[in-house]
Amino acid sequence: MAVLSRLGVNGDRLMGWINRLAKVGRQPNGDICRLAFTQEDLQARYLVQQWMMEAGLTVRTDAAGNLIGTYAGLLDGVPALATGSHIDTVPSGGAYDGVLGVLAGIEVVKTLQDNQVRLKHPLEVIVFTDEESSMVGARSMAGLVPESPADLKLRDGLNITDCLEAIGGNWEAIKTAKRGRDRIAAFVELHVEQGAVLERAGKEIGVVQGIVGMRRSKITILGQANHAGTTPMDMRQDALVAAAQVVLAVRDIALVMPGDPVATVGYLTVAPNAANIVPGQVELTVDIRDLSQGCMDAMQARLEAELRAIATATDTTISTELILFVPPSPATDRIQATIAAVCEDLHLSSISMPSRAGHDAMEMGRITDMGMIFVPSQQGLSHSGREYTPPEQCIQGANVLLQTFLRLDEMY
Amino acid sequence: MAVLSRLGVNGDRLMGWINRLAKVGRQPNGDICRLAFTQEDLQARYLVQQWMMEAGLTVRTDAAGNLIGTYAGLLDGVPALATGSHIDTVPSGGAYDGVLGVLAGIEVVKTLQDNQVRLKHPLEVIVFTDEESSMVGARSMAGLVPESPADLKLRDGLNITDCLEAIGGNWEAIKTAKRGRDRIAAFVELHVEQGAVLERAGKEIGVVQGIVGMRRSKITILGQANHAGTTPMDMRQDALVAAAQVVLAVRDIALVMPGDPVATVGYLTVAPNAANIVPGQVELTVDIRDLSQGCMDAMQARLEAELRAIATATDTTISTELILFVPPSPATDRIQATIAAVCEDLHLSSISMPSRAGHDAMEMGRITDMGMIFVPSQQGLSHSGREYTPPEQCIQGANVLLQTFLRLDEMY
Q: Is the ipTM of this complex over 0.85?
């Protein structure tokens, strides 16, 4: 039997799979369009299922359409360790987002099989359904699928019953897809960073501290539309002057908080929006993200105090409406520590960092221990055909995933 | 012969004319729609022309369609004194905007005629063409009509040749409408304020210091659109954060300058304008108005310095494009002094104030001595069927106009 700490994945095989999958949905401009539930999604699932079986995984599809491959373990009656990600893309996606995590998972199993290694725990590799839109796969597994299909963020014109049927799932039985800690002891996802933090820091691996939570509000500012010529400055109730103060307050709140929270006004519209009329109404969105629920709450409280002060100072009325709230999903400490220790042993440079984009691991973290491994995205580009992570870094990520599972197998 | 300083207009007759004209173009909701060159405009001109003739005015229409009534003076070969305004409205206009100035002018002449008073100078009452849109009437008289009809701000779908023909004008001969100081020695316009300054100050008459100039620019801010989750605050080039600083800088520039300049960002659009994307581009307009060209120049210089500082601080590129410039049109000092003295003698309270909206007097001020008299607009409302000035205040304005011409007749 091989010395486990020296096991390494077959990089050529992994990159071969990644490059083969990149042909499915490839557009003339280089982007990849492989939307969930489409023919391209099915074509990709078909290929991945074959590779799973070749790697010795036993394959099934749950009611949410999640494709689950299981590499049997030595012990009976113990929960699985699990990895995985997604193979659907945004309309103009790249070759690595999601795909790397799925194929590296299969490669980890194939490496174990090639070396006649079995873990004590079963090891699952999961292809989650529709990560890029509804996240129905991961949310079903976490027992968080909404009662009404209307509350699913499905692409326009789709029907969830038909969608799931097309990929072997079953909306009627969706609750059977739920898993728990008794079934999955730990979940670790490898993913490209989709940002430029690692590249800027010159690090090879990101040890993810958790997936940030998000609070998105719509803010409506009511002033008084008025003639921009005849209304003296001190008689104005200018909704845009108030909005400008809100935009800067939102930025300042993120800057003064500890850690690295982000806060963004990405959407803003003015009415009546004419050069010669003092703005009477502005609508804008505020999007706050951080790893710490406490920090998010503090930012929200600060924002509300600022809004009250701005409304008074500008003689406007400001109302807020919560439109989206996703609590943060912290990574389990001992999984973070394990990943960091693996990096050190493999002589790979690493840093701890939050994930500021959503991932399947976010939902899995709500039901069991969770960790994530990031590898760099060149120039931070993602959701684009120009998304790129060099083969060396893909393979480094897969090796960290492999060694992490070998250690978790001893810990759980 | 009457004691001139005790002469007063016939208020009932004036209000009768105003109320009669308000029926032309009256909509079910109370607004008045009497767009220039329409059948309603012609109907109103027809009525006004009759009232002019009844008041002893000799009537003609110039090439720009301006309806000009002349009350002959005692002296030959001297330039006229002139008053007037407009009878066209915006699509949802009121009963006083423009109309008061025209009908008070006719009433002034009718009062002189009733009292067998003749001035030394001819006195003209002018109905200017299309004040609410192209200002082609006043601009032609000032010799400022553009060579190309495309440069006239005519309502969509109209043809200036046809428009002028419909009201007795002639585009081919438009240059013959030009007047000069040799033909008109002084022009004084009575108008409703269209703002709430007089009402707030509790004053009966506004002695207009001049009509403010306007500089309107389009500002384009280029940042970098980016993921609102994965882009740390210190890596952003947020065009909306830059724009917010511009909005506040524009307001602050107006607040710190001497006098009462106004500065407005009325139009602002964000791209891509999505809650989860750091804004990459913002376009906005800056509209600066003041009575003093020097003040406007200083504001512009200050704005440009602020834009440079904001671009540097936010790592964005900011470009500006001038889209409209109208120089200020100051009222003649001795006409302002005369109006103020008349108010004092009539025991009417008055304040000096700029006009921040455009008027026919603005263009007349470019060719001869000019003054304007404001009466209050209830709640500052204008361009609405709810526009209202009580009869007492309309009549006070007409009496100030009458006494002002009696004095100017001695001064010119």
A: no
